[in-house]
């Protein structure tokens, strides 16, 4: 059985004080959810809020994630954060290769692979994002594209390490648009991703890897997504920004 993982991706929202008051509120709401310990709940916050959140969340069920990591150990890379720094600041997870980073910051399958290896080396758990845009979906190349993204992302990653990773399938056309893939369509792509992982690492490993869906996930569509065979969680943008809606989403996911 794969443990469900509900991760909020705050993107470039929330100051430190907003982040701290959010998690205080979320903690209280999660405490009222029966069986909440059956899922991993993660907040992927801006780098500026990681350390203050880490201090506030000591002993909390809420885990922290970063939204990006540089592939080098350290060096003259103005504006970047290393895996060592993020881990030290309290991150457990890190989102790698989000479509916004691929689109606006020139990330490639090669950098996604290097970042994945670097995160794993320093004990950060990668949430590796893949997904097609609307043109690619209309051309019918979704599976081919996602397969090549997955193969590239995990190139030279060992079977022990890959089972610590999470894959997030996020169709670009569904991000922030209110358009969601149907649960069946989302599941079909997630199942294809698992087949690719099985081909690379064997069925036993592939069956352990958690695959999230992301793209306009809301409290009212999460239950149907989670009922699918190959969807083990969600990467949530807009609906994670309010503790009330995110806690509701966690509750509906269980
Ligand atoms: O990009 C996303 C999560 O990483 C999805 O964002 P929305 O949930 O706002 O569509």
TrEMBL record:
Main subcellular location: cytoplasm
Please, one GO biological process term?
glycolytic process
Gene Ontology cellular-component terms listed? cytosol
The alphabetical list of record keywords is: Cytoplasm, Gluconeogenesis, Glycolysis, Isomerase
One Pfam family hit: TIM
Q: Catalytic residues? A: 98 (electrophile), 170 (proton acceptor)
Where in or outside the cell it occurs: the entry states: Cytoplasm
Named in its record, the pathway it takes part in is:
Carbohydrate degradation; glycolysis; D-glyceraldehyde 3-phosphate from glycerone phosphate: step 1/1; Carbohydrate biosynthesis; gluconeogenesis
What is the reaction catalyzed?
D-glyceraldehyde 3-phosphate = dihydroxyacetone phosphate
Q: Where along this sequence does the record place binding of substrate?
A: 9-11, 176, 216, 237-238
Cytoplasm among keywords: yes
Question: What are the protein's GO molecular function terms?
Answer: triose-phosphate isomerase activity
Q: What class of enzyme is it?
A: isomerase
| InterPro entries, per the entry | Aldolase_TIM, TIM_sf, TrioseP_Isoase_bac/euk, Triosephosphate_isomerase, Triosephosphate_isomerase_AS
Question: What EC numbers are recorded for this enzyme?
Answer: 5.3.1.1
**Highest taxon above the source species:** Bacteria
What PANTHER family would the database entry show?
TRIOSEPHOSPHATE ISOMERASE
Under NCBIfam families, the record lists:
tim
What is known about its subunit structure?
Homodimer.
Homology family: Belongs to the triosephosphate isomerase family.
Q: What role does this protein play? A: Involved in the gluconeogenesis. Catalyzes stereospecifically the conversion of dihydroxyacetone phosphate (DHAP) to D-glyceraldehyde-3-phosphate (G3P).
Protein name (Swiss-Prot/TrEMBL): Triosephosphate isomerase
- Gene name as annotated: tpiA
